């Protein structure tokens, strides 16, 4: 009578192969998740810019100041723009009366600061800035 089944060596071989596959795919998957979280946070920055510009457009003819400074660290002026989605954990945002924007926003989930100066067109991920330095000092001034 022949034995049907796998030997211990065959089972161990399959387990070793699966372990090697896991060792290769786990770091790759982690990097993909990390990159997608960073891109999502950059999208949050663009959402804040768009919401502020829409608010400026709505208030243009109502004698309401069009210069707006939002401090997410102290929660100052957060209710001035209508924004859906996740807010930054800290940082600040400024839009001047001409619609130019600057921001420094921090995400605890990704441990990154996104920045944009008045002259920049794109938001930049700045991994060197720590949370306490990821804030605009005041309207028009950057804290590097």
What does the model show?
With 144 residues, the chain is of the alpha+beta class. It has 1 helix and 5 strands; from the N terminus they run αβββββ. A 5-stranded antiparallel sheet has the order 1-2-3-4-5, covered by helices on one side. A hairpin with a 5-residue loop joins strand 2 (90-95) and strand 3. The chain is elongated and about 90 Å long. The relative contact order is 0.14.
Task: Give the beta-strand count.
Answer: 5
Q: If strands are numbered along the chain, what order do they take across the biggest sheet?
A: 1-2-3-4-5
How many domains in all?
A: 1
Estimate percent helicity: 25-40%
**Percentage of residues in DSSP E strands:** 15-25%
Span between termini = 79 Å
What is the overall shape? elongated
Quickly count the helices. 1
Key attributes of the depicted protein:
elongated; five-stranded antiparallel β-sheet; 1 helix; single chain; disordered C terminus; 144 residues; alpha+beta
Explain the layout of strands and helices.
Layout: H1 8-59, E1 68-71, E2 90-95, E3 101-107, E4 112-116, E5 124-126
Antiparallel strand pairs: 1-2, 2-3, 3-4, 4-5
What would you say about this model in short?
The chain has one helix at 8-59; strands at 68-71, 90-95, 101-107, 112-116, 124-126.
């Amino acid at each position: 009578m022949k034995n049907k089944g796998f030997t211990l060596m065959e089972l161990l071989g399959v387990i070793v192969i699966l372990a090697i596959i896991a060792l290769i795919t786990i770091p790759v998957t982690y990097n993909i998740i990390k990159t997608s979280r960073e891109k999502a946070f950059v999208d949050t920055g663009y959402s804040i810019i768009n919401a502020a510009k829409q608010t400026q457009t709505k208030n243009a003819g109502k004698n309401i100041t069009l210069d707006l400074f939002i401090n997410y660290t102290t929660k100052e002026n957060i209710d001035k723009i209508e924004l859906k989605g996740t807010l930054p954990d800290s940082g600040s945002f400024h839009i001047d009366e001409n619609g130019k924007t600057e921001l420094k926003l921090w995400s605890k989930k990704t441990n990154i600061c996104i920045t944009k100066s008045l002259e920049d067109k794109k938001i930049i991920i700045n991994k060197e800035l720590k949370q306490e330095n990821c804030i605009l000092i005041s309207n028009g001034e950057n804290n590097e």
